[in-house]
Specification:
CATH architecture of one domain: Roll
Number of helices: 4
Shape: flat
Largest sheet: 5 strands, mixed
Structural class: alpha+beta
CATH superfamily of one domain: Outer membrane lipoprotein wza domain like
Strand content: 15-25%
Radius of gyration: 44 Å
């Protein structure tokens, strides 16, 4: 074998060896990518949108009366609210003489007046101390006008008469009649009068004139 052929073979072998070494070096230098981070299995809980909201002002619910027609009486509880004037705001009781007492204002007539009329009176009295007072007066609790249910009803007792109420409505508010009630012999005691009421007739739409409106102090008796 000639010396020139040997040299060529040696050169090819050397070239292949250098190529292999170069590929191995590049493989060692290539950075290994870190494994992907697993995603959270669950989304973060939603934030409570109402959490940071300031609570709204609580408004006292008044009794179920018509502020334009209801006539205030002794033992009623009125809720008076004066905008931005806490010292003039709050519940007040109606005295037996029909008056209410407010700080600085003294006694103000409320008996036999509607809540709207009392509201106007309080507003006028406040003009001495407050510029353009904004006043709201509602009946918080009816104490002057009540009726009573006795006998075979599910919830006998005392009930406020804040709105016009018929005998049938009153029995419904008391949870209805008990099983052994004598529905044909119901009556209303009004002073020295005894007013009959036939429950079954009224339910059938007969003799509807019996279903009268109650007056303060009426006693409905269900035998």
């Amino acid at each position: 074998m000639s010396s020139s052929f040997k040299l060529q073979k040696l050169a090819v072998t050397t070239l292949l060896l250098m190529l292999c070494l170069s590929l191995g070096s590049n493989a060692q230098q290539a950075p290994i990518a870190p494994p992907p981070t697993p995603q959270e299995s669950q989304a973060p809980p939603p934030q409570d949108k109402d959490k940071d909201k300031a609570p709204s002002d609580h408004k006292e619910a008044g009794a179920a009366v018509d502020s334009n027609t209801y006539k205030i009486g002794p033992s009623d509880i009125l809720s008076i609210r004066v905008w931005n004037e806490e010292k003039f705001s709050g519940p007040v009781a109606v005295h037996q003489d029909g008056k209410i007492t407010l700080p600085l204002l003294g006694d103000i007539q409320a008996g036999d007046l509607t809540p709207v009329q009392v509201q106007d009176n309080v507003t006028k009295a406040l003009t001495k101390y407050v510029v353009k007072p904004l006043v709201t007066v509602v009946v918080q609790e009816v104490g002057s006008k009540k009726y009573y249910l006795d006998g075979q009803v599910n919830h006998p007792g005392e009930f406020p008469l804040g709105v016009p109420t018929t005998i049938l409505e009153a029995i419904s508010k008391a949870g209805g009649l008990q099983e052994f009630a004598n529905s044909k012999k119901i009556y209303v005691l009004r002073g020295d009068k005894r007013i009959p009421f036939n429950y079954k007739d009224v339910l059938r739409g007969k003799h509807m004139e019996q279903n009268i409106r109650l007056e303060p102090g009426d006693h409905i008796v269900v035998p």
